[in-house]
Hints:
Blueprint: H1 5-10, E1 25-29, E2 35-42, E3 46-52, E4 55-61, E5 68-75, E6 79-81, H2 87-91, E7 103-110, E8 116-123, E9 126-137, E10 140-148, E11 164-172
Antiparallel strand pairs: 1-4, 2-3, 2-11, 3-6, 4-5, 5-7, 7-8, 8-9, 9-10, 10-11
Amino acid sequence: MHRLRALALVAALAPAAAEPPARGLSITVSPACCAITFTAYVLGIFPIEGRFAAFTGRIERAAAGGPARAEARIEAASLALDGGPIEADVKAPHFLDVARHPLILFAAEADGMANRLTGILTIKGVSLPVTLALDARDGRVTAEASISRSAYGITARPVLAGDTIRIRVIAPLPR
């Protein structure tokens, strides 16, 4: 739900990645190569899976081990839930309010390579720091974080819908 698009951009920063080119790195993140998914919890314990179908992003690094930047833009209305009927409810004003807040944004800057990337995630007009844990293996990188939906002003149905949302961005590692 967070501007997860940027999370995919962070993928190339993982320490297990192949040796980066000396000239730097620039990767475009899109649904053609990447995925932005999330897990919410009904009653705080039963998982419901979702994904975003429309997002763009970029990961850039000036040179091997040098500073890196990640940016992502996610179209909030592209949210799709495996739970079907509640999808419209999650897009409504009392949850994401996709009509008034059409984008979820993420932006980060990092020095060198690390297992974590901290950036700013903006959802529903609220911007907060988020740290993504990075894991690179099998030719791809996964960036994961948990957020509190209430911290972003999404407080509807507190008993039915749990507060924790787990976000995942999956992208191929550069060769």
